[in-house]
Amino acid sequence: MAKRSAPEVNAGSMADIAFLLLIFFLVTTTIETDSGLNRKLPPIDDTEQEDVVIKEKNIFQLNVNRNNDLFLKTGGEEKVIQIKDLRAAAVAFLDNGGGTGPDACKRCQGKKNLRSSDNFDKAIISLQNDRATKYETYIAVQNEVIAAYNELRNREFERSFPNLGMNFVEADKRYSDARTPSSEKAKLKDKLEEIKILIPQKFSEAEPKKSN
Amino acid sequence: MSKFKKKKGGDMPAVNTASLPDIVFMLLFFFMVATVMRQNTLMIDNNLPFADQVEKLDKKDLVMYIYAGKPSSNYKSTFGTEARIQLNDKFAEVSEIPAFIAAERASKREELVPFLTTALKVDVDANMGLITDIKQELRKVNALKINYTTKKGNALQGLKK
Lengths: 212, 161
Known about the structure:
The complex is a heterodimer.
Chain A: H1 14-28, E1 35-40, E2 59-64, E3 70-74, E4 77-81, H2 83-94, E5 124-129, H3 135-160, H4 168-176, H5 182-198, E6 203-205
Parallel strand pairs in A: 2-5, 5-6
Antiparallel strand pairs in A: 2-3, 3-4
Helix pairs in contact in A: 2-3, 4-5
Chain B: H1 20-34, E1 50-51, E2 55-56, E3 63-69, H2 76-79, E4 84-87, E5 90-92, H3 97-106, E6 117-122, H4 128-140, E7 145-149, E8 151-152
Parallel strand pairs in B: 1-8, 3-6, 6-7
Antiparallel strand pairs in B: 3-4, 4-5
């Protein structure tokens, strides 16, 4: 019997089929964003709370009005501030270290202005917005405040653990990465906690004002 | 001198398309891998704001999504132009959030419930009043871990000033 060679399959339409699939996936694809600013809401507490007295110099009061203008009240002065200047202002406030005696701040590198915050632990940033404030502005303000905290935490983390070769944000990312081995996670956790206790995020959000 | 005779002009050599399927397949595989099938059909405009201090939301199955924004053009006539909340596949009122959270919690294994995060995907043009109402409802049902979903970028770029 004569040997018959297998007939070659015509692959000419393969490209068409592949194109069809490609177009299907192109249309259905949405590259989902899955990153953002993590915050924690305060729990509702109905029990009567004692009013805590906080020195005015320890509050960095931010107020966003309905026209998305940002007002800053701190250290006895009130002014309109641009959002791009907010990060530097917040860092200067947190890092001021104006406290004396038991409130003295050893690690602050600021100006030690007596009319600004005592130390990292005492400094409170408060944010209040109007109900008509745009979400975009709110996120920008949030972002800048978190950036100010991260900047200081990075600095202190590198000062405390210089041989680690990473800053706070990188260490935190490494800690929350599922692929990091658990032995390393345990080590990182203590270090991260130490910095979080040193520079706590005391960032309070007041309920917004009604605007009619 | 026939050796140096010019070729007959006119017929361009055909471009070899044999590698075309390979290229297309390469693209195809890229999109197949990168695709995440949308869970919800968006009925609102959802242009997320930018921020640069972002953290990644890793466990996708532990996230509850709340969308908010202006109804998109198809729904404007029925639902108006005021920013609204979308839960799953339909518009919702703020008061429906606790029921939504409860349903989401019930669908997860009990030991995972404390790790649930609520991702707020809110349009840049929404007002803070709506966000505050959402946050207040979330506090009532003790869903305190939230994430403002943002795009990665300079937070100031979108602002007018």
